[in-house]
């Protein structure tokens, strides 16, 4: 983790036809959800704030198959970041801004299904599992926050609080682990591609 650091202070051969179609569907869904929710991917990163380095599959040194899988994977992660930022905004503003928890829950459940449906090569299965488990931890965290709100009680573990909620810690550990696995799998990639790995996974993290 040390070369890039796990910090939030950053601002700033052809695939097969079936894979191309799947990627277009994913990106089309990304645009439609961003439009519906009134927040783009770039806006979500700025709200954290965090630098955004897109994953550019044409610039990689890995196999074309892995590149297409990761392009789809990071496309879905960007959706998860948008949903998480908007849910967090909703809670922190007492429902005045952002997206309500039931909408976040429905969208996140759909994203977990979409991620689970990806055809993942064996080398990436551990990364894939880590991220899905991290999203489940985050969903459970927001569910607990929602229950607290309904009881009319102050939430003990808002983002930035110390100590962190166990689900937030668990999610963070899994996302950092996924990043470490990607760096080990693709040591030959350029610094920009490695930064894209980092930015997507770190922006999804609360810590």
Q: Spans with pLDDT under 50 lasting ≥5 residues?
A: 1-5, 9-25, 28-36
- Taken as a percent bin, the fraction of beta residues is under 5%
Total DSSP E strands:
0
Please work out how many helical segments DSSP would assign. Answer: 7
- Which assembly state applies to the chains in this document? single chain
Q: How many structural domains can be distinguished in the coordinates?
A: 1
What structural class do the secondary elements suggest? mainly alpha
The end-to-end distance, rounded to whole angstroms, is: 14 Å
Calculate Rg over CA atoms.
17 Å
How confident overall, as mean pLDDT? 87
- What would you call the shape? elongated
Please give the largest β-sheet: none
Instruction: Provide the succession of SSEs.
Output: HHHHHHH
Helical percent range? 55-70%
What this model shows, in words?
There is one protein chain. The chain has one domain (17-204). With 207 residues, the chain is mostly helical. The chain has helices at 17-37, 41-47, 64-92, 101-117, 125-150, 166-185, 191-204. The longest helix is centred in the middle third of the chain and has 29 residues, at 64-92. The chain has 7 helices and no strands.
